[in-house]
Structure prediction request, 143 residues.
Amino acid sequence: MMFLGQHEHSVDEKGRLFLPAKFRERLGTPFVVTKGLDNCLFVYPLPEWEATAQRLQEVTTSRGDARAFERLFLAGAAELECDKQGRINIPELLRQHAKLTKDAVIIGVGRKIEVWSTATWREYSNNALQSYDQIAEELEVRL
Prediction:
């Protein structure tokens, strides 16, 4: 299962965000939303979430930084479902983490979806594009 593409939608005054139909179909129900990296949200289908949480829990717990990441990642998670209009109601804590107030960008990133505030996504993607070729070379990406 692969999530691909970029979609722009608005977050309404109640914190609801429309998910594109092709993403909803692949996500299934319920799914999990949690604090992502770089000030975005990660959205996982339940089986992928369970596999990710399992991998995270296998990291050594003797490291304080690993324990802190695990706690924040898991404690910030919410199991959600779409309403009949295809919207998810993002909890306030997660909206604050991603600075979601009005405009949002929803991107497919392989096994998960990311939700960004439009301003944060534009800044991040513009910065990343400047080193796009260099990163590909360093990672020895085969395209």
User: Anything to note?
Assistant: Strands lie at 6-10, 16-18, 31-35, 41-45, 78-80, 87-89, 103-109, 112-117. Residues 48 and 54 are 10 Å apart (CA to CA).
